[in-house]
Amino acid sequence: MIELNGITKTYRIGATEVQALAGVSLSIGPGEMVAVAGQSGSGKSTLMHILGCLDRPDSGSYVLEGRDVSKLGGGQLAEIRNRRIGFVFQSFNLLPRLTAIENVALPLLYRGRSDLPAAPGGRRCGPKALAEQTLDRVGLAPRMRHRPSQLSGGQNQRVAIARALITDPAIILADEPTGNLDTATGQEIMRLLADLNAEGRTILIVTHEPDIASQCRRQVHLRDGRMISC
Ligand code: ADP
Ligand code: MG
Which residues form the pocket of ligand 1, taking CB atoms under 6 Å from any ligand atom? Predict the structure, then answer.
């Protein structure tokens, strides 16, 4: 599913260079649920951005579903991002003026009608109806006309998960998805992610909380931009 080989990434600010990734190799099979652990600054988010085709490595190869994506241009990367990958962030990254339904429907707005994912049962429907069904799927049907400021952190994270899910992605990348939530709410989000994994989706979760990492079948550790266990 995912094959990284010798991935490096260096950030430059003026004359200062920070090597965020110093040669990361990692292989992840379909349907795995993997925790990416490591201290703050160890390169976890940089790795997720590269995995999610939001950023490109300086060197090394990244083969995603059999395709070498380290060589693709911006348009092709955007296409992969929109179709194969769903993102969940610590701070939800929802648009404040939009309702839950509108936030969730966003990834489908630029698609033609014939290009929309099928609803459960194979039915065809528009982005808004798909967004409603996806919000129902994450347990948020009663709140779907609310805006982010009218929802709790856990509810907003469910909206964000629904937005990641609406394109029916094979891979879900979650960067500290429980980082802004209390322990009980964080556990609910982990259960939801585990359910999505049980459906066969490949899931990577960045965390520095050992409790969260231990709920994933596999754990990899980053330190100073290198894998110290995988
Ligand atoms: P983590 O998510 O594990 O906390 P990051 O991947 O965010 O780590 O960062 C790894 C290193 O790269 C850190 O030293 C960080 O300061 C640096 N870094 C990350 N993003 C940038 C950026 N856009 N510009 C400059 N330095 C960055
Ligand atoms: Mg980070």
Answer: 11, 13, 18, 20, 38, 40-46
- Each residue's pLDDT tens digit, 153-204: 999 999 999 999 999 999 999 999 999 999 999 999 999 999 999 999 999 9
Residue 181: what pLDDT?
94
Tell me: the pLDDT tens digits for 78-95? Answer: 999 999 999 999 999 999
User: Cα separations (Å) of 120 from 44, 124, 169?
Assistant: 34, 9, 14
pLDDT at 118: 84
Residue ranges of domains in the chain:
32-56+78-221
Rounded to two decimals, the pTM is: 0.93
Q: What's the CATH number for 32-56+78-221? A: 3.40.50.300
Interior CA angle at 194 toward 191 and 196, to 5°? 115
The per-residue b/e assignment along 125-160, b for 16 or more CB within 10 angstroms, e otherwise, is eebeebbbbbbebbebeebbebbbeebebbbbbbbb
**Among protein residues, the one whose CA lies closest to atom 6 of ligand 1:** 43
